[in-house]
Amino acid sequence: MRRRRGGVRAVGEGAAEARGRFTFDPVRGTLVYEIEVSGLDSVAVHAVALRSTDDEGQWMVVRRLSGPGVTAPNGMLTLTPANRSRLEEGELYLNVFTRDHPFGAARARLELRR
Fold first, then answer.
1. CB 51, CB 95: distance < 8 Å
2. Is the dihedral of CA 62, 103, 68, 38 positive or negative?
3. What's the pTM?
4. What is the spatial distance between Cα 83 and Cα 47, in angstroms, rounded to a whole number?
5. 23-78: per-residue pLDDT in tens?
6. How far apart are CA 21 and CA 8, in angstroms?
7. How far is residue 76's CA from residue 53's CA, in Å, rounded to a whole number?
8. DSSP state of 112
9. Fewest 10 Å CB contacts: which of 12, 44, 67, 98?
10. Sign of the CA dihedral running 53, 89, 17, 72
11. Calpha distance 81→52 (Å, rounded)
């Protein structure tokens, strides 16, 4: 199996925006990410995270990618089998949380090329 790449652009209320590049390795179950948040001051950013819904349809944070003040998080994480399935099914979202929008200032679905 080969690695799959994808990109995302999350646009939200006001000027908040996040752009990201992702590479998923299905053999290792790893997701490499590079994200850039723009349109707001770094002090306004509370977190950048991956979210999905639980079995009852309620939003949950799957993995926090950065904390307060970080506008360019990057790294690699290993997805659980459940989160691998969510990614493959288009059920993982990139979210930016801010002081003014604690439930999410910008959101976009992660989509990988087939």
1. yes
2. positive
3. 0.88
4. 19
5. 999 999 999 999 999 998 999 999 999 999 998 999 999 999 999 999 999 999 99
6. 7
7. 22
8. B
9. 67
10. positive
11. 14
